[in-house]
Amino acid sequence: MNQRLTALGLPDILDNPEELAQLTDEQIDELANIRDEAAEALESDESNSDLIDTVYLAHMTLSSALFLRAIASDVEIPDLPAAQVLARSWGGSLLLACEADTVRDIIAPRSTLDVLTKAGLPATADPELTFSLPPTRLSDMIELAEDDVDDASSKEFFSTFWKIGETDDGDVLCLDERADCAVILLDAEWGYYAQQFVNSSVGHLLQCLEAWRLLEEDDANEVDEAIERFERAVDRIDPRALTEGAFWSDVVAMLEEEEDEE
Length: 262
Description:
The structure is a single chain. The longest helix is centred in the N-terminal third of the chain and has 24 residues, at 49-72. The chain has helices spanning 2-7, 17-21, 25-42, 49-72, 83-89, 110-119, 148-158, 202-217, 223-237, 247-261, and strands at residues 95-96, 121-122, 124-125, 129-137, 161-167, 172-176, 182-186, 195-199. The strands form two sheets. It has a six-stranded antiparallel sheet with strand order 3-4-5-6-7-8, sandwiched between helices. A two-stranded antiparallel ribbon has the order 1-2. The chain folds into two domains: 2-72, no CATH class; 76-262, no CATH class. The relative contact order is 0.12. By secondary structure, it is α+β, with helices and mostly antiparallel strands. α3 (25-42) runs antiparallel to α4 and α8 (202-217) packs antiparallel against α9.
């Protein structure tokens, strides 16, 4: 497995975002296969440090590559309505906005700051998400490594993320300053280093949450048709949200799998 990882350019490729974003579908599949094979082998050899390192390295590389692919995608991102229009189009529970002075330290596009201060987010929304504003710098919220070198690199890495919510599993939803404050999910199980693209902005997230709310209210006789309508809605709102490995892409895949099992 180590030879296969080396052939993919690991670990050096982790320091080159452009190369990571350009991994081919075949290379992405190979990373997933290596991770899954190592994880399966660990089931019968749980203390094997080489297998543990292989699973970690492959998964970190895979999640980073898919996130960067979404960010680097050349699909056109639809413009957002004004924040006040977004607020009026929301049909769920009360939106909670934050004061302008609480977001002054965030390096974000004006449209993002407007959504945070003039529209807001609900306290809770399906699929099983909890939100809290104002955003909080993630490096101030999580326990970092004690080693001096690791501590410095961890602080630098996490300082670009502003937490706006979390999942029921404890994963955190953040605005990522490195990517014009796109919404990103950081996986708690992987020390918050595994990344998943969610939406191009918090405004696009709010629109996708509204599309999900309408899906739950859809009384169509054919569930698969309702799922297709939801997928089309997300594609209109934010096409990058349906790229491979993205949050909403995984949600659609989960819905389709559940429908196939019934």
